[in-house]
Amino acid sequence: MHESLTVIAHIRAKPGHESRVREILQGLLSPTRAEAGCINYDLHQSHTDPALFVFYENWVSEAHLEAHSKSPHIQSLRKVAGEVLAGPVEITKWQVVI
Q1: Domain locations in the chain as residue ranges
Q2: 3 — phi, psi (to 5°)?
Q3: Is 53 exposed, middle or buried (0-12, 13-18, 19+ CB in 10 A)?
Q4: What is the dihedral of CA 32, 66, 11, 1, to 10 degrees?
């Protein structure tokens, strides 16, 4: 079995905060992509619902994802989440089926 891990994270902005959330999330891209173990970290915004964002991420291992969750830039997001997000980030973890 492969140790690599795919993460899909759904994020919903509070009404009126879509632009701010997009800016905050875009700010996570460069530092996360530079992290050890990050294979890719891609942000998407819904075509039909501008309040809905999705991160599609691939990590070398669960340990690398755990380190990411403790990074300063993710901690910064957590500090403002209550102001701008409609609810908690919904994270699902996946493994490739070969």
Answers
A1: 5-94
A2: -85, -20
A3: buried
A4: 100
Q: What is the edge-to-edge ordering of all strands in the sheet holding 90-94?
A: 38-45, 52-59, 5-12, 90-94
Q: Which residues of 1-26 are buried (b: 16+ CB within 10 A; e: fewer)?
A: eeebbebebebbbeeebbeebbebbe
Q: What is the pLDDT of residues 70-85, one digit of tens each?
A: 999 999 999 999 999 9
Question: Does the domain at residues 5-94 carry the CATH identifier 2.40.170.20?
Answer: no
Summarised one tens digit per residue, pLDDT across range 11-61 is: 999 999 999 999 999 999 999 999 999 999 999 999 999 999 999 999 999
Give dist(CA 97, CA 89) in Å, integer: 25
Residue (of 44, 55, 53) closest to 6 by Cα position:
55
